[in-house]
Amino acid sequence: MRVIKNWILATFILSFLVIIAGGIVRTTQSGMGCPDWPRCFGKWIPPTNASELPADFEKYLGKQDIDHSFNAYHTWIEYFNRLLGVLLGLFAIIQVALIYKKRKQLTRPFKLALAFLITVILTGLFGAIVVKLNLAHVSISVHLLFALLLTQIQLALWLDIRDKIQVLPAAASLRKWTIIFLLLIFIQSVLGTMVRMYIDDISRALNYQQRDTWLADSPTAFLIHRSFSWVVLIIGLFLAWKSNNVPALKNKYFLLAAVLLTSMITGVGLFYAGMPALAQPLHLLLASLGITQTVSILLQLRATGSNRALS
Question: Looking at 3-57, which runs of residues are DSSP E strands?
């Protein structure tokens, strides 16, 4: 059983690494570094310099949205992102195989493991659509949504397989507030996606130069996103205060508030420090962690009954 638990935890961590890799792909404009799928420039191992390009390379370069020339840096960043996705798929398959042996005892974990595997496959297949549509705004957003969904499924699996399910006693009103809070985080994420779409358009128009001017006009979506972050943080602190009589729960809400505050700080850095490349994937990671922590709290608030031990 320990092997299963460790594998589930490792897969959970790997799912976040995939999200980080996706963020790096976006911030380095490497999304079309491999302009075909599943291969890269028609090869399973991409070229490292222009001399290794296939004879019909121009049909691939014409799909790129940067300078229509071969850039090994962009190619290998995107290729590494795909390798992480493949690795996550292998982890998901092995995870199902490990739990399959005890599927009668672990009925719910087995179903969650299957759901995770299916979602990973769908995420990978949708990656092909993203490339086919040449990084269309909606396709990128849906691709990210798939990544967040598979992370939450793996979270549910991890919480379910632990030796003890931690029941967090709370009033019904706190559960309702937490659900509302999750909805607010989702709205904030949508606003963030709208800001990202605006930045994509501006950066492309500027040939991905002059990063410090990408938010110079302060679009409406950005202003709302920036102001709304305070609403989310205040409600997060309110939830921590409201759960003051349950120390374990209060700590989880304070951790959530700390993640949100750090995310806000990276957002401030993006605006005032000229859109530093490192801050973009970090901002995405912190937003993902905020959603995950909220879902984790909700899953434990909803848990009822006695704790069960797994042998």
Answer: none
* Domain end (from 144, 162, 180): 162
Q: Are residues 180 and 310 in the same domain?
A: yes
Q: For residue 93, which amino acid is it?
A: I
Q: How far apart are CA 29 and CA 36, in angstroms?
A: 16
pLDDT in tens, 78-100: 899 999 999 999 999 999 999 99
Residues 170, 153 share a domain:
no
119 close to 150: Cβ distance less than 8 angstroms: yes
Q: Which of 122, 137, 162 is the last residue of a domain?
A: 162
Residues 237 and 284 placed together within one structural domain of the fold: yes
Q: Are 150 and 15 in contact (CB under 8 A)?
A: yes
pTM value?
0.83
Q: What is the pLDDT of residues 199-253, one digit of tens each?
A: 888 887 887 788 888 888 888 989 999 999 999 999 999 998 888 777 778 888 9
